[in-house]
TrEMBL record:
It holds the Pfam family PhyH. InterPro entries: Phytyl_CoA_dOase-like. Keywords: Dioxygenase, Oxidoreductase. One of its GO terms (molecular function) is dioxygenase activity. This is Ectoine hydroxylase-related dioxygenase, phytanoyl-CoA dioxygenase (PhyH) family.
Length: 254
C-alpha cells in the first residue's frame, strides 16, 4: 500500500493519506453498519449530541450543530472488526508504527448534512497520553470528503512540537490556531488518513447536502505505555499484527 517515501513523509509531516484502502463493497458494509448503530443508539438511553462546546464558533451557530460520535464501534458490528485488522491496514501500520501493533480504541464520527459540527484545532494526546507517542489515528472515510462537508485539516510537522497547552475540552486556542492554519486533506470513500496523536488537526462544519461519515481506529505499539490511567475500555489491546512482548493480564472495566 505504501512506499518508503510514504513512510518518510509520515515521519516528517505526522500524517499520510492512503488511497483505496477499502473497496466499494467494504465501504458499503460499514456505511450500513453506521446507520444501524445510529438507529440502535437513538432507541437507547445512551444517545447524545457529541458536538464540542466552546467559543470557537458564534453561539447561535453552535447550538444548531450536531455530531454523532460513538466509541468502540467494533463491539457493535463485525464489519468494523474486519476493517481494524484488514491486510491493507496492517500493511501501512506495520511500516509506520512497527512490527507490533495494538488497537487502543475505535470511534464513529458522523457529521449530518447542513448541520454537522466542527472540530477546533487540537491534538488527541490529552485524551490518552503515552510515553513514546507511537499512537496514531486511522480515519476511514465512508463518503467523499472535502472542505464543504467538513474534511480533516492538519498542520504538517506539528507533531514535532510535543504536547501543547489546550483549553476547554482539550482543544487549542482558536485565535492562535485557527482552522485556516491547517492543510485540507480531501479524500474519497475508502481512503484512510493516518495521523499521529500529536499532529494538530481539526475540521470545519458540514454545510453541504452530503453526510461526512468516518470511523477512527487508534493504534499504538504495545510497548508504548500510557502515562495516565484514562480512556480505558473493555477489550482494549487487540493485537493487529506481531506480538505483545510482555505478558499482562487484561481485565475489563464492566
Amino acid at each position: 500500500m505504501i512506499t518508503q517515501n510514504d513512510v518518510e513523509f509520515y515521519k516528517e509531516n505526522g500524517y499520510l493519506l492512503v488511497k483505496e484502502v477499502f473497496n466499494q463493497q467494504e465501504v458499503e458494509e460499514m456505511r450500513t453498519a453506521v446507520d444501524r448503530v445510529i438507529v440502535k443508539a437513538a432507541a437507547s438511553k445512551y444517545d447524545s449530541n457529541a458536538a464540542w462546546g466552546g467559543d470557537y464558533l458564534p453561539p447561535e451557530e453552535m447550538k444548531k450543530l450536531v455530531l454523532k460520535g460513538f466509541h468502540d464501534v467494533h463491539y457493535h458490528d463485525a464489519s468494523f472488526t474486519r476493517a481494524a485488522i484488514h491486510p491493507n491496514m496492517v500493511n501501512v501500520l506495520s511500516q509506520i508504527i512497527g512490527p507490533n501493533v495494538q488497537l487502543h480504541h475505535s470511534k464513529m464520527l458522523v457529521k449530518p448534512p447542513e448541520k454537522g459540527a466542527a472540530f477546533p484545532m487540537h491534538q488527541d494526546t490529552p485524551y490518552f497520553p503515552h510515553e513514546k507517542h507511537t499512537m496514531l489515528a486511522a480515519s476511514v472515510h465512508f463518503d467523499d470528503s472535502d472542505m464543504e462537508n467538513g474534511c480533516l485539516c492538519v498542520i504538517p510537522g506539528s507533531h514535532k512540537q510535543g504536547l501543547l497547552p489546550h483549553v476547554g475540552r482539550h482543544y487549542l486556542n482558536h485565535k492562535e490556531y485557527p482552522l485556516s492554519m491547517g492543510t485540507p486533506c480531501p479524500a474519497k470513500a475508502g481512503d484512510v488518513l493516518f495521523f499521529n496523536y500529536l499532529t494538530i488537526h481539526g475540521s470545519d462544519s458540514n454545510r453541504s447536502s452530503r453526510p461526512r461519515r468516518n470511523v477512527l481506529f487508534q493504534y499504538r505499539d504495545p510497548m508504548d505505555f500510557p502515562t495516565e490511567e484514562t480512556h480505558i475500555n473493555w477489550g482494549q489491546g487487540l493485537m493487529i499484527c506481531g506480538e505483545n512482548e510482555i505478558y499482562k493480564e487484561y481485565k475489563g472495566i464492566y
